[in-house]
Design goal:
The chain has 277 residues and is mostly helical. It is built from 15 helices and no strands. Helix 2 packs antiparallel against helix 6 and helix 2 crosses helix 11. The longest helix is centred in the middle third of the chain and has 23 residues. The model has no long low-confidence stretch (mean pLDDT 92). InterPro entries: MPAB/Lcp_cat_dom.
């Protein structure tokens, strides 16, 4: 596919997964992405000060959610402009002689992994709310989900050909995940609200941590070296059930209001010449 064709991919069905409860799994998705050593060190050791999650969490949350809004709901022009803005940041993120592993944020293979994690997370949210994707719907949803990567440098042809091949790719990559002590400390600090004010940590940190670990597949919990009991699972199931119940009673337009506001913000920033990331 040409760049113009990738920017014009129809993602209207996949966009239905962008629900407000997605915020509850955002940190878990970050952990999944950073379980790839190259991505993990690339983020933990990033020299792009303005984009560091641990130092500018509000800005980073906005730009990440804006990317999702643009990828799933935006026009070809929205995607092109956001990609250009991200490229300027990603071009600065690369390993040096002291890096334990080699990484380059412009590497399409790493972007495929990040896109796969994003897709996995949003498929999880969609199925929790709407039930299992089956038949043609499952494949349509999956094919549209490639916008998680094609909105950046990942060529459409790198996206596994169908949902079954995606599962093979996913299982193979999960078998290779590693989280070093350095990256683990970085991730646990994020999961515990370590970057927030002490009172926020105290009040919201335990819930944020528990729900974050709850969303992780067991292989990621093992790599992160955290405990997860039957009581934890029971708490998590009850916690998510409450969100799912509210989502099912809420109209789609209301649940997606936050993402649509971010898309509007991106367009306004473009018109005013303000930075997107």
């Amino acid at each position: 596919m040409s760049r113009a064709e990738m920017d014009a991919i129809d993602s209207s069905f996949f966009a239905q997964s962008l629900l407000s409860m997605g915020q509850t799994m955002s940190t878990a998705n970050v952990i999944m992405q950073l379980a790839n050593p190259a991505v993990g060190y690339g983020v933990a050791r990033s020299t792009v000060e303005s984009g560091r999650l641990d130092r500018h969490p509000v800005k980073r949350a906005r730009t990440t959610a804006s990317y999702l809004a643009v990828a799933a709901m935006g026009t070809a022009d929205d995607r092109r402009r956001f990609r250009q803005a991200v490229n300027r940041q990603h071009a600065q993120v690369r390993s040096d002689d002291e890096s334990p592993v080699e990484y380059n944020a412009m590497d399409p293979r790493l972007q495929l992994w990040v896109a796969a994690c994003l897709y996995y997370g949003w498929e999880d949210i969609y199925e929790r709310v709407h039930g299992p994707l089956t038949g043609p719907d499952r494949e349509t949803f999956y094919q549209q989900g490639k916008v998680c990567g094609t909105t950046l440098q990942m060529p459409a042809e790198m996206w596994p050909a169908d949902r079954e091949k995606f599962q093979l790719y996913w299982d193979e990559q999960v078998s290779k995940i590693q989280i070093s002590d350095e990256v683990r400390e970085f991730l646990l600090d994020i999961a515990n609200f370590g970057y927030a004010h002490r009172e926020i940590q105290k009040r919201y940190g335990p819930v944020k941590y528990r729900r974050t670990i709850g969303y992780l597949p067991q292989a990621f919990r093992d790599a992160l070296r955290v405990e997860w009991s039957d009581a934890d699972q029971e708490w998590f199931d009850d916690y998510v059930h409450g969100y799912v119940d509210r989502e099912r009673r809420r109209p789609l337009w209301l649940s997606q209001m936050g993402f649509r506001a971010l898309l509007w913000d991106v367009r306004l920033r473009c018109r005013l010449g303000r930075p997107l990331v």
